[in-house]
TrEMBL record:
Similarity comment: family membership: Belongs to the ribonucleoside diphosphate reductase class-2 family.
Family annotation (InterPro entries): TSCPD_dom
Statement: the UniProt record of this protein carries the keyword tRNA processing: no
Catalytic activity field: a 2'-deoxyribonucleoside 5'-diphosphate + [thioredoxin]-disulfide + H2O = a ribonucleoside 5'-diphosphate + [thioredoxin]-dithiol
Residue span(s) of domain TSCPD: 47-160
The entry's keywords: DNA synthesis, Nucleotide-binding
Keyword presence, Repeat: no
EC code: 1.17.4.1
A family per Pfam: TSCPD
Organism (species): Dyella lipolytica
Name of the molecule in the record: ribonucleoside-diphosphate reductase
Length: 242
């Protein structure tokens, strides 16, 4: 293609091929660096061939046979600083077939919510708030469970804590020392008043807290005792006096 020059030529220089390459190089370096795509949990995420998870055993007086709860996790952004484990599916198995229908329905709904993505920790509080009209029961350690659904919720909570999705508020060293001091003072006062009866001794051995302790409204553990005219929990430190 011929180009007609209508203005006067004031100067010129010869541009070699290597000069063109050198001039184009800074332009390539000026491009924005590529950013790795962060994968978030969503319902269109395909299930990998292999998942990692944990299995929990639930032994309830409401069931003849134990329940085995398996929660499998998907690992997002593996090998990067954004790596995260998220619950992907849940299975509940037992020899007891009396409650087969609602157990299957519960596992399918929970798995669907897990795969939906977003904040799934709300499931814990919703399930732990389910009460059995026949009454609840105490686990080992004196923790009260209002229903079998609530204990499944507690298992999910424990699993979410294990993978870092839920974090417990940590007590300070001074608070731990105060609870230990109050517990020792209460046990000494109790021993001076009366000796343990066989029933109380069994309760003390299984629960790990002094006999006569009542249920704490905060942590659902039989560890609430009356000290200095104030109800104090020897498990979580809760006190009605602040």
């Amino acid at each position: 293609m011929t180009i007609k020059i209508e203005k006067k030529i004031k100067g010129y220089e010869v541009v070699k091929p290597e000069d063109k390459a050198a001039a184009a190089a800074p332009v390539a370096e000026a491009k924005e660096p590529q950013v790795a795509e962060v994968i978030q949990m969503h319902e269109s995420l395909e299930r990998p061939e292999t998942l990692i998870g944990s299995t929990f055993k639930i032994k309830s007086p409401l069931f003849e046979h134990a329940l085995y709860v398996t929660i499998n996790d998907i690992v997002l952004n593996a090998g990067t600083k954004y790596e995260q484990r998220r619950p992907f599916e849940i299975f509940i198995n037992s020899k007891n077939m009396d409650h087969f229908q609602w157990i299957v329905a519960l596992t399918r709904i929970l798995s669907a919510v897990f795969r939906k993505g977003g904040d799934v920790t709300f499931l814990v509080e919703e399930m732990k708030a389910v009460f059995d009209p026949r009454g609840g029961y105490f686990k080992a350690g004196g923790v009260y469970m209002p229903s079998i659904v609530a204990e499944i919720g507690a298992v999910i909570e424990q699993h979410m804590k294990n993978i870092g999705l839920i974090h417990d508020p940590e007590m300070s060293d001074s608070q731990r020392a105060l609870i230990a001091e109050k517990r020792a003072a209460y046990e000494n006062a109790t021993q001076k008043k009366t000796e343990l009866s066989p029933t109380d001794a069994d309760t003390n051995d299984s629960a790990g807290f002094p006999p006569g302790a009542t249920l704490c409204a905060k942590c659902n553990t039989k560890a609430l005792v009356l000290m200095d005219g104030c109800q104090t929990c020897l498990n979580c430190g809760y006190s009605k006096c602040g």
